[in-house]
Amino acid sequence: MPPENAENPEEVDFIQQVLEEAPSFVWKRFIDGTELRCLMIAPDEHTPESAAPAVVFFYGGMWALEYTTEFISWAIHLCDRGIVCLIPEYRTRAKYDVKAGDIINDGLDVWKWVHHNAKNLGIDQGSITLAGTDAGALMALNAAMQPLLYKKRWWEFNKRDIPPLQPACVAIFRGIVDTDAPEARILNVPGEVKDPESVNPSALLRRELPALFCAHGMLDPLLDYEMRRWFCNRWESLGNIAECVLCPAGDHTLTHFEVNPTVFEQVLLAWESFMVEIGIWPKSEVKIDSLMN
Question: Which residue, of 37, 80, 217, 246, has the greatest Cβ tally within 10 A?
């Protein structure tokens, strides 16, 4: 959830300017006329022919808040690195009469929409990352952890498991990884989803998952960092790539530059290094130790 009094007037004005200038697209339209839009923040020279890496950000707020501006600071930095950032609107309880399953399905649908429209958006289909905070991270994980389309039997020697449509990476920041945990009670997934385990990341762990980056503040009073560490260790033990960054000075606001710039930079630079190392993002043209000059 967003911190109280986190944004100063200058920050608000700057974010509002970005929101007004950045293009957006309708990615989902309902029969009653309701439209969900997707904000696109891209490099100045970006064109449909760019085939750039991209990140789809699912904002947090535990579905009780509309916090669409959470990742604007991230997107501004990443687009300077040549990375396209998409911030889709999805239905929340703050604005719509929806249940947990509807919201989670929006996350899966927008992932499919972005992948299908990647060429027109100037995005490389094979370099798309899904990212999110708290319940937004749950949506990113669910989209990235869909069950295998075909799971080979023990007697089928010349066949392989067939994975579903997957992003190149999934990145979670103070993310919900177990919908049965007390910290996720407000989401009410067990009470509103017909098959709750089918959308519970802790129950969906398997081989052949995309790379995972996880960051969490060790001073977070709402979400225990040990659960995130366990999740990453389990992800990696199954033969997948994972990195867990625990921030000793970080709390629930670790994604907010205006609250704690040092932790913000630690997380963002660690994520950049990870993405470059696994070959999804290009190396930075300038070697930097800090995002601030």
Answer: 217
pLDDT tens for 247-259 read 999 999 988 888 8
**pLDDT for residue 170 is more than 90:** yes
DSSP states along 112-168: HHHHHTHHHHTEEEEEEEEEEEHHHHHHHHHHHTPPPSB---TT-TT---B--S--S
Query: Is 290 exposed, middle or buried, given 0-12, 13-18 or 19+ CB atoms closer than 10 A?
Result: exposed
Q: Residue 9, SS3?
A: helix
Identify the three-state secondary structure at position 52.
strand
pLDDT tens per residue across span 111-132:
999 999 999 999 999 999 999 9
Distance between CA atoms of residues 103 and 109, nearest Å: 10
Residue 5: is its pLDDT beyond 60? no
Q: Report how far residue 238's alpha carbon sits from residue 205's, in angstroms, rounded to the nearest whole number.
A: 8
**DSSP string computed for 195-260:** SGGGG-GGGS--SSPPEEEEEEETT-SSS-HHHHHHHHHHHHHTT--EEEEEETT--TTTT-TTT-
Q: CA-CA distance, 128 to 125, in Å (whole number)?
A: 6
Instruction: Give tens-digit pLDDT for 37-50.
Output: 999 999 988 998 99
Burial of residue 43 (number of CB atoms within 10 Å: 0-12, 13-18, 19+): middle
